[in-house]
Specification:
The protein is of the alpha+beta class and about 210 residues long. The chain has two domains: about 60 residues, no CATH class; about 110 residues, no CATH class. The protein has a four-stranded antiparallel β-sheet, covered by helices on one side. Strands 1-3-2 form a three-stranded antiparallel β-sheet. Strand 2 and strand 3 form a beta hairpin. The longest helix is centred in the middle third of the chain and has 20 residues. The radius of gyration is 19 Å and the shape is elongated.
């Protein structure tokens, strides 16, 4: 079993860019993470370092809430982690401030850069591996970036993105047929393929969306 990250390495992993996984640190610190398989050095200049899938899993494990069975052994969670999270719909509060708009724009630009850096041809028209590993967040970010409004806690208006049992597929719900079609147009422009389906129980229409591979 591999050793857990050191305190300094934990800080670096937790401080990585929430979308691209870009790391900052001294050359020795970055090389140590590469040696442990938690980061890789990009072959193109400026040769930045990014979290590997194992590094992303490590960060997710570090961000898990404290164990309720043994609270005395767990550190208290931070009041604000500062990690960006796309609105998937159903949140209690929806921030529509200019600051939120800037954060969404920055996250989308970072995601496009990650697409560019992780493809040999530098194309940005298709989802990357990070998006395939975070389907709900990736689809929600595409929708929020395009100006779609997430549903509130009562879910009567706006979009909702939810996981499905199907591999590489999310369900997108909207308030009406026109809004659903608009979500489909946005996702397809962002590199997703979509199809409309009917819930057999509620008879409500929804989108099944998957990242396009080619």
């Amino acid at each position: 079993m591999s050793r857990p990250p050191t305190v300094a390495q934990r800080r670096m992993i937790e401080g990585a860019d929430p979308v691209t996984g870009r790391l900052t640190g001294t050359p020795a610190q970055l090389a140590a993470l590469v040696g442990r398989g938690l980061a890789f050095r990009h072959p193109r200049p400026p040769h930045d370092h990014f979290l590997t899938p194992a590094g992303h899993r490590t960060r997710e494990s570090l961000a898990r809430p404290p164990d309720p069975i043994a609270p005395a052994r767990q550190p208290a969670p931070a009041a604000d982690s500062g990690v960006f999270s796309a609105r998937i719909g159903g949140e209690e509060t929806a921030d529509a401030s200019p600051r939120r708009a800037r954060e969404v724009h920055s996250a989308w630009q970072g995601l496009l850069e990650l697409r560019r850096m992780t493809r040999r041809d530098g194309a940005t028209d298709r989802p990357c591996d990070w998006e395939r590993a975070h389907l709900v967040q990736a689809a929600a970010l595409a929708l929020e970036t395009a100006g779609h409004r997430p549903a509130g806690p009562d879910a009567t208006d706006g979009y909702r993105v939810r996981a499905t049992p199907q591999p590489e597929a999310v369900a997108v719900h909207a308030s009406d047929a026109a809004a659903l079609r608009a979500c489909a147009v946005t996702l397809e422009a962002a590199g997703w393929q979509t199809g409309e389906h009917t819930d057999p129980r509620t008879r409500a229409r929804y989108l099944l969306a998957s990242p396009r591979r080619a």
